[in-house]
Design goal:
heterotrimer, A mainly alpha (314), B alpha/beta (446), C mainly alpha (298), B: 446 residues, 16 helices, C: 298 residues, mainly alpha, two-stranded antiparallel sheet, 12 helices, globular
């Protein structure tokens, strides 16, 4: 019963978000698209974090997804959203399949640092690549959808709807995965790997799958952000970008698959208002917000929603 | 339990798609209407985006913001000299909204949309980083709002794409490098070896590539002794200085700026880098007043155009220097001049458009048409929007050599040579690097 | 031959600087298991405080050599004031949480200190270059070096030697070592662990500030210097092995020499050489060169 209720709630939420596309002011539509798109990277990060692994290098896959979209659009003239997003996901997963072989052997801070090192190497390569405009980056031409090339206003709505649907599909798939045998190993791995091995499960395999999933989601997320923003640069692979993802993941909390989306939206809106109304001290406001969440809402903003719905259910 | 749930979900997805279609339709209907004739508003709001935090805030962002504040205040009080004596923009007071440029291009695209769509500014002036300029230009085009880029350097903006609503009222970075190469050769005709130390990001890479290409075009037998590319904001240049001292070139080119340039000077001077070789700092003017006696004599410096000590002696410039010095107790540096050019260019275009519309408040399209190919007065002399289909200014450039002045406690520039805009900018329609490698075809040098 | 000598000299000078700016990070991690992102802010605060003191001192016409003592004083002031403040005021409320949560707590502190620094000192640069030029220059392998560069090497040796002596020759140091090895057993043995934490964090903060203070005369002190230091210091201590004094020294030496070699022979690679070294070292030795392998509990 609980599961059905949740699925219904998710569908209703998705519908509400889709409908919102028609009424939201343009700036909010854009902010929402970027926030939900970034939420996909954070969702992938949350998979890893549930198993106790924190990647400070998700920017690597995020940037790969974005550069796939940018390269195809600007250099090969391929602007179809589904094609460039697919290419980004494939590229990210392929690279993750290689890097992941090494990564699964690492835990804790060493996993974090090694992932950071790999993303910084990509950053270095992108900065040296003149075809991609070095640190200035390149523009990404407006997306088309299976031959349909919408005008600017409609393109914004189309990208928003695409992001909402991608987000809803990812959240639904994530829930399904989290309940599967492989997915539910996460907490066990985090608590005690040796016990998991004694139970006959392969820790390395479980982590490898999570790593690939997280990379694929980050690739999709980077592609969506590239199409939405219309410009990409190596900053996407820089460690501060990855650090921000971790920051938002904790803001949202890791207990719930919807939490990354919620955290991402709250973060983007908070930062945007901090920029607008406190241009000299926005960093301090964000720092205070984060401290307040960590100290007073230890399980993230997502846990507030959980608590609220639990009370309602009673 | 499984099957019905699946079915239920399928139904939801279909519903979602239907709603998606409806939403698209709704927006199609709603998203029209930009009133042609407009009533004169109570105030005109300008979004101003410069670095207010991070490494570029001190040397560029905050001086530019200060310049904007002084200029807007004076304009609103009608205190700026002719031809800008009318209050505000065509009599309407100006209000400013400042935004921090820190945070990267994705952030800036979002903030530009917020400025225009949430805070409803009438136009935006801003952007120091070339990456930000490239990212925000298509957004202004999409939103059909006037965007004036005031400082960023990359020539790619108007060489790769054409824009209707985007302008740059300052020269692009090619003139720095071409002017630098001409100046170096004028002072050292027998030059054989050059070296470079530039930050390893687009600005530094482009600056070095342009300078090197210009040098080779003017004197093909010049050799590169050492080419250093430290990371941006590295701060420690001990090994690089050793490499430069060891290579012993006749001229060292650097486009370092801000804290990096100052660190290079502070670390290089005690080690004799500036006694042994001729160093050229393309944006060196920004530290003349700051470093005082710490700045060695004999360094070649530029100001990315005829700004600061290179600016002409006209009434606007005298007013700007006096007003800036009076409030901030230091002379204005080139970012202040670039900001002044942007604001005054907008004012000139706005009032020209109003005149053309018979005194009625102009639409954005009318202002845009007025700014295209406009020539307007500025503290740096007349500025012509003669490149990039009338959207890109062509500025002259000047270089000089530092000399400490005991009386003022600041360095002055001596042996100044000024190069006309037609000498250091490619002709309309020619890409910068092609122009340099062609041996500056079409350049008009005295 | 001269190139090799220059690489060696430049590498050692840079390594010494790296060691001073990163050893505090390693110390705090070793004792408290916190990867302190605010390390960068403490470095910047050290630099600003030192610059202000030096400028005021020379402005008042004080004896030039005293400025070196002022650098030290600035580091101590920042460490002793801000260290306990941050540890008691913020960090202790998050003890017992995941390492990554603690990391983000320090990141929040970093964001707050960043803007506070800007509010106090503004965005204009501060110059305190007198101590750098004061000692004159010396020729080594045919190249001119500032004597101050070698003073930094001396400072690194003093810091390293001092820390070694404290850990191995004093009672307080041994107590800290005990906490590093096993916090719970130390607690059970009656060691006042909270006090060790305050002391360790203050010492780490003072070392971060010392890094900033000795750097101040070489640079113009401006906003943004903090961010660059963080990843550099992380890389050094991760390569060497987190929480190990010898590791920080070895990590600094490796990074210093490799970077100097890149500058002299392959300048284009300078951008990512540190991360390449870090990835390589971690690939070969997953816990860094001097890192301890954690025992796994069944």
């Amino acid at each position: 019963m609980r599961g059905r209720l949740r699925a219904l709630a998710t569908a209703a939420g998705t519908l509400a978000l889709l409908l919102a596309g028609a009424v939201l002011p343009a700036w909010a539509l854009f902010l929402g698209t970027v926030a939900l798109a970034k939420g996909l990277t954070i969702l992938g990060l949350v998979f890893l974090m549930r198993a106790g692994l924190v990647s400070f290098g998700q920017g690597l896959y995020y940037a790969l997804g974005a550069y796939a979209a940018g390269f195809l659009g600007e250099h090969l003239g391929v602007t179809d959203a589904f094609a460039v997003l697919g290419a980004g996901v494939v590229l990210a997963v392929l690279v993750a399949a290689l890097v992941g072989v090494l990564m699964v052997q690492y835990r804790e801070i060493f996993f974090a640092m090694l992932s950071l090192a790999f993303s910084m190497i990509l950053y270095g390569v992108l900065v040296k690549t003149q075809t991609f405009g070095s640190t200035d980056g390149i523009n990404v031409p407006p997306a088309t959808f299976l031959g349909w090339a919408p005008a600017a206003g409609r393109l914004r709505v189309a990208l928003y709807l695409l992001t909402v649907l991608a987000g809803a599909a990812a959240v639904a798939a994530a829930r399904r995965y989290a309940l599967s045998t492989l997915g539910s190993l996460a907490h066990a791995i985090r608590d005690n790997e040796i016990r998991v091995e004694y139970l006959g499960a392969s820790v390395a395999r479980a982590i490898y799958v999570k790593y690939l999933l997280a990379a694929g989601l980050a690739g999709l997320s980077g592609g969506l952000v590239a199409l939405t923003v219309g410009h990409i640069d190596p900053e996407m692979a820089y460690w501060t970008t990855s650090g921000e993802f971790v920051f938002v993941a904790l803001l949202g909390g890791t207990g719930n698959v919807l939490a990354p989306m919620l955290g991402s939206v709250v973060f983007e809106v908070a930062r945007s208002y901090a920029y607008a109304y406190s241009p000299y001290t926005w960093q301090m406001l964000l720092g205070l917000l984060m401290l307040a969440v960590i100290l007073f809402v230890p399980h993230g903003l997502g846990s507030l929603a959980e608590r609220w719905s639990a009370r309602r259910a009673r | 339990m499984r099957r019905p749930r699946m079915l239920g979900r399928l139904r939801d997805v279909v519903a979602a798609l239907a709603v998606a279609g409806a939403a698209v339709g709704a927006v199609q209907v709603a998203g029209v209407g930009d009133a042609a004739a407009q009533a004169r508003p109570a105030r005109v709001s300008i979004g101003i985006v410069t670095f207010l935090s991070g490494g570029a805030a001190g040397p560029f962002g905050v001086p530019a913001r200060n310049g904007a504040e002084i200029l807007v205040e004076a304009l609103n009080e009608g205190k700026v000299p002719a031809p800008y004596a009318e209050k505000g923009l065509g009599g309407v007071p100006i209000e400013t909204v400042f935004v921090d440029e820190a945070g990267g291009a994705t952030r800036q695209v979002t903030e530009l949309r917020n400025l225009v769509q949430r805070q409803q500014v009438d136009l935006v002036i801003g952007y120091i980083s070339s990456g930000d300029c490239l990212a925000v230009a298509p957004v202004a085009e999409e939103l059909k709002k006037l965007l004036v880029l005031f400082d960023c350097g990359t020539p790619r903006i108007f060489e790769d794409r054409a824009y209707k609503y985007v302008f740059r009222t300052a020269g692009h970075a090619v003139l720095d490098s071409v002017g630098a190469a001409r100046y170096v050769l004028a002072r050292k005709p027998g030059l054989r070896t050059i070296a470079g130390i530039n930050q390893n990001y687009a600005w530094g890479q482009d600056s070095w590539n342009d300078f090197r290409a210009a040098m080779l075009a003017l004197k093909p037998d010049v050799k590169e002794a050492s080419v250093q590319f430290p990371k941006l904001f590295a701060g420690q240049y001990g090994a690089e200085i050793s490499a430069l001292l060891g290579a012993n070139p006749e001229v060292v080119h650097s486009s370092f700026w801000g804290g990096d340039m100052e660190a290079l000077i502070l670390q290089g001077a005690p080690r004799g880098l500036f006694d042994k070789t001729q160093v050229l700092l393309t944006p060196g003017e920004t530290v003349l007043a700051r470093l005082g006696r710490r700045l060695p004599d004999g360094i070649m410096v530029g100001a990315r155009g005829p700004h600061g000590p290179f600016a002409p002696d006209n009434e606007l410039n005298r007013w700007l220097i006096a007003a800036y010095q009076d409030r901030y107790n230091t002379p204005p540096t080139y970012p202040v001049y670039h900001m002044a050019q942007a604001i005054l260019g907008v004012k000139a275009a706005w009032e020209k458009a109003m005149k053309a519309a018979g005194g009625r408040w102009p639409t954005t399209d009318q202002v845009v048409a007025a700014l295209e190919r406009l020539t307007f007065e500025s503290p740096s002399g007349p500025i012509s929007m003669s490149l990039g289909n009338g959207h890109q200014a062509a500025e002259p450039v000047a270089y000089g050599v530092t000399k400490f002045d005991q009386a003022s406690g600041r360095s002055r520039v001596v042996d100044v040579v000024r190069y006309d805009a037609a000498c250091v900018n490619p002709p309309e329609g020619v890409k910068s690097l092609d122009w340099i490698t062609s041996g500056f075809k079409g350049a008009k040098c005295p | 031959m001269t190139t090799a000598a220059a690489i060696l000299v430049d590498g050692v000078i840079y390594a010494a600087w790296l060691f001073v700016i990163s050893v505090g990070l390693s110390l705090i991690y070793g004792v408290m298991r916190i990867l302190n992102v605010a390390h960068g802010s403490l470095y910047a605060l050290g630099a600003y405080t030192a610059a202000s003191l030096v400028i005021a001192w020379f402005g008042a016409g004080g004896a030039p050599w005293v400025s070196y003592l002022l650098l030290l004083l600035a580091a101590l002031a920042v460490g002793l004031v801000l260290g306990p403040l941050v540890e008691r005021g913020v960090l202790r409320w998050a003890y017992g949480r995941d390492e990554v949560v603690l990391l983000l707590v320090t990141y929040s502190v970093f964001l707050i200190l960043e803007d506070l620094t800007k509010l106090v000192w503004g965005v204009d640069p501060y110059y305190a270059s007198q101590p750098y030029a004061l000692l004159g220059r010396v020729a080594v392998a045919g190249l001119a070096y500032s004597v101050y560069d070698f003073a930094v090497v001396g400072c690194a040796l003093l810091v390293g030697g001092g820390l070694w002596a404290v850990f191995n020759r004093t009672r307080a140091g041994r107590l800290v070592l005990a906490v590093i090895h096993d916090r719970e057993v130390s607690l059970a043995m009656g060691i006042n662990v909270p006090r060790v934490y305050v002391a360790a964090f203050a010492a780490g903060a003072a070392l971060a500030a010392l890094g900033g203070a000795i750097t101040a005369p070489m640079i113009s002190v401006v906003p943004g210097i903090s961010v660059e230091i963080i990843v550099l210091a992380f890389a050094v201590v991760v390569i060497g092995g987190l929480g190990s004094l010898g590791g920080a020294a070895l990590g600094a030496l490796i990074v210093g020499l490799v970077r100097a070699a890149a500058v002299h022979t392959l300048p284009q690679a300078e951008l990512f050489i540190i991360y390449a070294v870090m990835a390589l070292v971690l690939a070969l030795r997953p816990h860094g060169l001097f890192g301890r392998v954690e025992l796994r509990r069944i």
